């Protein structure tokens, strides 16, 4: 499509957008009495208006039923998480039995590493990406320390080539083959939080398995954003937060995937708790752990249903829309934002360098942009003028045009505000 940097053209794109009405399903913060242009759904998604009803339902059940809400609420609390299996399985490309929801992201990655990071004297190394999200880095270091090993001897980072912003798939494969028989685990962010690069998860998973390692994925920036086929890619395990692209609220529950090939492996250790025990016998208070068949067998504690309720509101919206429709708009609106940035770049003295891959197959709802010749003052100007974006040192802004609630007209207005902020400095 040939784009135009005009309000009329942006409005035309919105009129053709089959998802445009979902914008009205969300609350927007306001600046200067106007809805903001919200580019930080890669950090915290906006609140869906339908969320409150899901929370109120539990509050009412608690008030009217108290403990009996576990069994007699309209959505009984004792199996509340089972309502996620079907819709989440479609979002991440899994079988429903391979899905559960519990805890928060890094907690779940730690718990999954109990099962899938089992270092031996000869096979003990972990491969991750350079500049992984800090929480993942801390997790790796503490897991290695826990096993009495030295992080500098265990953690292997795949690095970017000199002068490049993104990691090449062939370099990940080469590092996997180089580490070879010493490799115990590959665990990488499916979408790099800083650059927005989408990794070739299918190819990397196959390469890790070829040398005998487990392969897991941190899907914090991928779930609800990227087309995933975790079962078919033969991924061993994955976890994701729900509060970015999936709009479940700050710090909310994490989704987990465990491939069915591992469900009946008695040799695979796990940290157990009564919510992972045989559901039909859970309240018999038996002394020996008998895990539920499937990913629910990794559950530990009674679930915080008040936290799960907003997530359920969100996944049911995703079920209405489907990932194919979301991704179709995602690609179009991200391309339009890229076009707007390139057009504004021609009109100002500063220059913009988009460090997110230009290939749509290697990016999703994020463009990370170096603002050469600009500093923090431009970011502050954008915020004061109703553009909520994310600043990363030294001078990168991350822009996430989330297809559920961002409009093409937002992209046009952002360009005009950006240009004015540069020209007026």
UniProtKB/TrEMBL annotation:
GO biological process: anthranilate metabolic process; L-kynurenine catabolic process; L-tryptophan catabolic process to kynurenine; NAD+ biosynthetic process; quinolinate biosynthetic process
Modified residues (N6-(pyridoxal phosphate)lysine): 244
Binding of pyridoxal 5'-phosphate, residues: 105-106, 133-136, 218, 221, 243, 274, 302
Keywords: Hydrolase, Pyridine nucleotide biosynthesis, Pyridoxal phosphate
EC number annotated for this UniProt entry: 3.7.1.3
Catalytic activity: L-kynurenine + H2O = anthranilate + L-alanine + H(+); 3-hydroxy-L-kynurenine + H2O = 3-hydroxyanthranilate + L-alanine + H(+)
Domain annotation Aminotransferase class V: ranges: 73-246
An annotated Gene Ontology molecular function: pyridoxal phosphate binding
Pathway the protein acts in: Cofactor biosynthesis; NAD(+) biosynthesis; quinolinate from L-kynurenine: step 2/3; Amino-acid degradation; L-kynurenine degradation; L-alanine and anthranilate from L-kynurenine: step 1/1
InterPro entries for the chain: Aminotrans_V_dom, Kynureninase, PyrdxlP-dep_Trfase, PyrdxlP-dep_Trfase_major, PyrdxlP-dep_Trfase_small
GO cellular component, one term: cytoplasm
Signal peptide (from-to): none
Oligomer status and interactors: Homodimer.
Family (UniProt): Belongs to the kynureninase family.
Function noted in UniProt: Catalyzes the cleavage of L-kynurenine (L-Kyn) and L-3-hydroxykynurenine (L-3OHKyn) into anthranilic acid (AA) and 3-hydroxyanthranilic acid (3-OHAA), respectively.
Protein name in UniProt: Kynureninase
Annotated gene: kynU
């Amino acid at each position: 499509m040939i784009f135009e940097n005009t309000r009329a053209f942006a409005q035309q794109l919105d009129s053709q957008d089959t998802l445009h009405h979902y914008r009205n399903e969300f609350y927007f913060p306001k600046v200067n009495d106007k809805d903001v242009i919200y580019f930080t759904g890669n950090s915290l998604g906006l609140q869906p208006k339908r969320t409150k009803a899901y929370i109120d339902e539990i509050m009412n059940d608690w008030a009217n039923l108290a403990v009996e809400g576990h069994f007699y609420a309209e959505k009984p609390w004792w199996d509340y998480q089972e309502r996620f299996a079907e819709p989440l399985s479609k979002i991440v490309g899994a079988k429903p039995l391979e899905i559960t929801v519990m805890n928060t992201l890094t907690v779940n990655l730690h718990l999954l590493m109990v099962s899938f990071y089992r270092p031996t004297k000869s096979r003990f190394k972990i491969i991750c990406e350079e500049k992984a999200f800090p929480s993942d880095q801390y997790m790796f270091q503490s897991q290695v320390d826990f096993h009495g090993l030295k992080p500098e001897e265990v953690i292997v980072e795949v690095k970017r080539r000199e002068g490049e912003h993104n990691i090449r798939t062939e370099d990940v494969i080469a590092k996997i083959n180089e580490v070879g028989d010493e490799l115990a685990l590959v665990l990488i962010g499916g979408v790099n939080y800083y650059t927005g690069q989408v990794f070739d998860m299918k190819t990397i998973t196959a390469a890790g398995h070829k040398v005998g390692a487990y392969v897991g994925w941190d899907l914090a920036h991928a779930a609800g954003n990227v087309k995933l086929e975790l079962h078919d890619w033969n991924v061993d395990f994955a976890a994701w937060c729900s509060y970015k692209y999936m709009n479940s609220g700050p710090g909310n529950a994490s989704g987990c995937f465990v491939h069915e090939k591992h469900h009946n492996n008695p040799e695979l250790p796990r940290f157990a708790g009564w919510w992972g025990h045989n559901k039909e016998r859970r309240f018999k208070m038996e002394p020996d752990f008998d895990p539920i068949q499937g990913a629910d067998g990794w559950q530990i504690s009674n679930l915080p249903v008040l936290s799960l309720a907003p997530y359920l509101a969100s996944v049911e919206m995703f079920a209405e829309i489907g990932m194919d429709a979301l991704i179709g708009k995602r690609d179009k609106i991200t391309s339009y934002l890229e076009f707007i940035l390139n057009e504004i770049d021609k009109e100002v003295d500063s220059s913009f360098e988009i460090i997110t891959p230009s290939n749509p197959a290697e990016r999703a709802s994020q463009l990370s942009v170096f603002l050469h010749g600009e500093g923090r003052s431009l970011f502050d100007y954008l915020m004061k003028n109703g553009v909520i974006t994310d600043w990363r040192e030294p001078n990168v802004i991350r822009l996430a045009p989330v297809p559920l609630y961002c409009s093409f007209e937002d992209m046009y207005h952002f360009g005009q505000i950006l240009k004015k902020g540069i020209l007026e400095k």
